[in-house]
UniProtKB/TrEMBL annotation:
<protein>
    <submittedName>
        <fullName>Polypyrimidine tract-binding protein 3</fullName>
    </submittedName>
</protein>
<dbReference type="GO" id="GO:0006397">
    <property type="term" value="P:mRNA processing"/>
</dbReference>
<dbReference type="InterPro" id="IPR035979">
    <property type="entry name" value="RBD_domain_sf"/>
</dbReference>
<keyword id="KW-0677">Repeat</keyword>
<dbReference type="Pfam" id="PF11835">
    <property type="entry name" value="RRM_8"/>
</dbReference>
<dbReference type="InterPro" id="IPR021790">
    <property type="entry name" value="PTBP1-like_RRM2"/>
</dbReference>
<dbReference type="InterPro" id="IPR034797">
    <property type="entry name" value="PTBPH3_RRM3"/>
</dbReference>
<dbReference type="GO" id="GO:0005634">
    <property type="term" value="C:nucleus"/>
</dbReference>
<dbReference type="InterPro" id="IPR006536">
    <property type="entry name" value="HnRNP-L/PTB"/>
</dbReference>
<dbReference type="InterPro" id="IPR012677">
    <property type="entry name" value="Nucleotide-bd_a/b_plait_sf"/>
</dbReference>
<feature type="domain" description="RRM">
    <location>
        <begin position="353"/>
        <end position="427"/>
    </location>
</feature>
<keyword id="KW-0694">RNA-binding</keyword>
<feature type="region of interest" description="Disordered">
    <location>
        <begin position="174"/>
        <end position="201"/>
    </location>
</feature>
<keyword id="KW-0597">Phosphoprotein</keyword>
<dbReference type="Pfam" id="PF13893">
    <property type="entry name" value="RRM_5"/>
</dbReference>
<feature type="compositionally biased region" description="Polar residues">
    <location>
        <begin position="174"/>
        <end position="186"/>
    </location>
</feature>
<dbReference type="InterPro" id="IPR000504">
    <property type="entry name" value="RRM_dom"/>
</dbReference>
Amino acid sequence: MGRSGSNDLLQLFQPFGVISKLVMLRAKNQALLQMQDIPSAISALQFYTNVQPTIRGRNVYVQFSSHQELTTMEQNAQGRGDEPNRILLVTVHHMLYPITVEVLHQVFSPYGFVEKIVTFQKSAGFQALIQYQVCQSAVSARTSLQGRNIYDGCCQLDIQFSNLDELQVNYNNDRSRDFTNPNLPSEQKGRSSHQPGYSDAGGMYPANGATAAAFSQMANAAAIAAAFGGGLPPGITGTNDRCTVLVSNLNSDRIDEDKLFNLFSLYGNIVRIKLLRNKPDHALVQLGDGFQAELAVHFLKGAMLFGKHLEVNFSKHPNITQGADTHEYMNSNLNRFNRNAAKNYRYCCSPTRMIHLSTLPQDITEEEIVSHLEEHGTIANTKLFEMNGKKQALVQFETEEQATEALVCKHATSLGGSIIRISFSQLQEIRENS
């Protein structure tokens, strides 16, 4: 399997928890992998009993080992540790502004010659791999920049040493750059290349090729499985790879792209949305990956919105071509799955009568919340509470349709000077003392 084989393995298991050790038994074509704790190992095993894991098209079989503890030279299997390397794995948290290769180069080049930069979007958020010419530059950059913000109050850097030896860069553009080879093309010409993706051990960047798509698919499936306690929700296969869904039977007088975004972004990151001009009650919605699209189709089929039952199906179009009539959401900071994806997956459900409001102003009152939402239906009950020092609220409508309309129209609107976030709550009723 080689070095890339160990990266592929880490990619399969990383979403379930921290991998503390990995030993490759090359002669037997086997590997021993130790998770940091037993629940992580159990949830990985449970998940891969239902979903067949593959590496490079070959099935992989997972079972518990009789070894209680592995001793290994390479303690930092995941490249998450303090063992210095000239390649850094950088995660950017609270990314309110888009970060490009240029921005990263400005930030990291004062510490030494940067040879290559690759950026990619993961469930953990925006990540980059930065390769210096020498290891000492990487050590200095990490020491100086760890925990710092690129911009005032946002775009915080979380920096670890990667365990990769060399970055492979095929294109020079906003997402990847080889500063030692300025003559690379800006994008791929013709057929898709099968450049392998990097596993999340050093970050996985979306390569143009089936293998990379399959790996990121597995990682997302695993993140969701971990969120749902080791298994997938009933009816979710985890094997869909179509990212675009067709929504029909919309109320064309009342719907627009932002309202669709507010609803579909509950199930994944939205790339772009297009209302079909020749069929005004139809729209295409492209999500971040096939898993998120499957969640949207599963949970929104038949939902009532503006007096109509939504039809939600996978589209025959693999993606939506950008154009004058498309709305772009790729870099929207309203996308919900850039940070803490597992938590958001856990809250995925079909529309309910109860909505949950967060990022409310500290001095908000229940009366203000009611007057902000009551045009959408009869409010049966409300509860204002504090969680981790932040004001949140539950609002119960008489019907699911009213709650859906309130979410679609009022998510990301301003209330008392704050942009509020709204999602469905799976609570059946508001208990006074809860």
